[in-house]
């Protein structure tokens, strides 16, 4: 007795398969469908250098990051999570929560005025790794998935910020000059570093959205200086000294929860806040734990190191000598994989 479907049926199947796809003819097992990484290589045969082989980014997304140095993913962080981060930030501003290692910055226009325990006094908080609630942002799996496509499987959270851009006091000091984040980082390689920046509300040109120069990540790290702004510039808000003024600027209009991933050499800044609200964004810079520290002495980054040391001396006393590398090693936190060099 012949099994149901026997030779006759398999012959018919073979003919059908040949008809559908000559390469899947009899004998050959069904080939698995091509992965996203394979598709990307077929479609864009040039070498990828800013992204790693992965099966998350579509070929178009991967190509976009390679060419432009940034990629916006819509609606990546939930409203609920963002409200938790907002509440925690408010508690920090009201002094209800003390976070070890946190740096609180006030806008230059209010830095010298009387202290008020309110978000109105805070332009940005930095290094919130010691706050478990805010740090949860850096560990969100949907963010780390994208980060892994750029930095690989061993991921350190190196630098964290919650930016609370105040209504401009009329001096344009709420602007952030165009800069490259790598200017502040004494580690390399740049291609294994990425920033995730999430809008905590709708952010457009009225409240000071991010402005990027697409493709600028392909250039070198540039010389940075304080811009000559009449209304004053915030401490450490260095800007690129010269950049191609003809490069088109792109204003990234983002909705709450939208997240942009960008390369540390991408030239970016943000405009002034013309609204009455405090424009909020949360961000984390990630690096592969395979990265290594560099000595910035004798480079364009030397001045940053000196300036940060000077701030630390003022704050903690004259005898303190901050080794930049040590300061980064203490702050950095592993979020995925193994801690190697960093
Ligand atoms: C990807 C980006 C990477 C980065 O951004 S890495 C850059 C690292 N960033 C930093 O190190 C943060 C810099 N900011 C700070 O450390 C602090 O905000 C800063 C400036 C020390 C102020 O700390 P506070 O604890 O508020 O100290 P303080 O009230 O005693 O002020 C000390 C002196 O600084 C002045 N100041 C405070 N906020 C300022 C501002 N926004 N712009 C300009 N000057 C500012 C303040 O007036 C005071 O000056 P003075 O000593 O009285 O002459
Ligand atoms: N003189 C300057 N030096 C360095 N950066 C600057 C200077 N003037 C403006 N910027 C920065 O350049 C970026 C782009 O400026 P641009 O005028 O295109 O947009 P914007 O000021 O953000 O928004 P809008 O044009 O809607 O006011 C902003 O991030 C701003 O902070
Ligand atoms: O205005 C912003 O949110 C961007 C700030 C920024 O680029 C930075 O602090 O490095
Ligand atoms: Fe930046
Ligand atoms: Mg402008």
Automatic annotation (TrEMBL):
It comes from the Eukaryota. One of its GO terms (molecular function) is phytanoyl-CoA dioxygenase activity. GO terms for cellular component: peroxisome. It holds the Pfam family PhyH. Its cofactor is ATP; L-ascorbate; Fe cation. Its EC number is 1.14.11.18. Pathway: Lipid metabolism; fatty acid metabolism. It catalyses: tetradecanoyl-CoA + 2-oxoglutarate + O2 = 2-hydroxytetradecanoyl-CoA + succinate + CO2; decanoyl-CoA + 2-oxoglutarate + O2 = 2-hydroxydecanoyl-CoA + succinate + CO2; 3-methylnonanoyl-CoA + 2-oxoglutarate + O2 = 2-hydroxy-3-methylnonanoyl-CoA + succinate + CO2; eicosanoyl-CoA + 2-oxoglutarate + O2 = 2-hydroxyeicosanoyl-CoA + succinate + CO2. Keywords: Dioxygenase, Iron, Metal-binding, Oxidoreductase, Vitamin C. One of its GO terms (biological process) is fatty acid alpha-oxidation. Belongs to the PhyH family. This is Phytanoyl-CoA dioxygenase, peroxisomal. It comes from Anolis carolinensis. The gene is PHYH.
